[in-house]
Design a protein that fits this description.
The chain is mostly beta strands and 137 residues long. It has a domain at 31-120: Sandwich (Immunoglobulin-like). Helix content is 15%, strand content 47%. It has one helix and six strands. The chain has one helix at 2-21; strands spanning 30-35, 38-41, 48-68, 76-92, 96-101, 108-118. Strands 1, 2, 3, 4, 5 and 6 form a six-stranded mixed β-sheet that branches. A hairpin with a 7-residue loop joins β3 (48-68) and β4.
Length: 137
């Protein structure tokens, strides 16, 4: 009996985020989703070269624009739409943000941060020998 309820709980925890993603945003709001949101770099690859899938959905039909930190103007605008998607190819080496606006371009309705994680560290412990000094093998 206890195992059965544990299985139901595990299935519910697995499906709940999927069910929540399918829900419409609250009235007057915009949901913005960007994939991926993380890039890992190291000494060999100091910059990221990624293709982003950007999806948005609003509870109301209207005029919406997508912006990023890379330019002053919008990447794309949609008129009389409630949802949309696009892809964006980028090469970057710093974290940045995508955001959506409505007719008032100064007001951000939703935003997503894209993070850059660097693995190149000057920590000497990463470069030290793995064998003992007196090991002759």
């Amino acid at each position: 009996m206890e195992i059965l309820s544990l299985r139901r709980w595990a299935v519910l925890c697995f499906l709940l985020p999927t069910i929540a993603l399918g829900q419409e945003p609250p009235n007057g709001s915009v949901r913005l989703e960007v994939k991926p949101v993380l890039c890992v770099t190291d000494n060999r690859n100091p910059s990221c070269d990624l293709s982003f899938l950007i999806m948005w959905q609003s509870s109301t039909i209207g005029y919406y624009c997508l912006f990023s930190d890379f330019g002053d103007g919008p990447l794309r605008c949609w008129a009389e739409e409630r949802l949309g998607q696009m892809t964006d190819e980028r090469t970057f080496d710093e974290s940045f943000t995508f955001w959506m606006t409505g007719e008032d371009l100064a007001s951000r309705l939703a935003e997503v941060d894209v993070e850059v994680l660097r693995l190149d560290s000057d920590d000497r412990r990463r470069r030290r020998r793995t064998r003992h000094v007196w090991d002759i093998n």
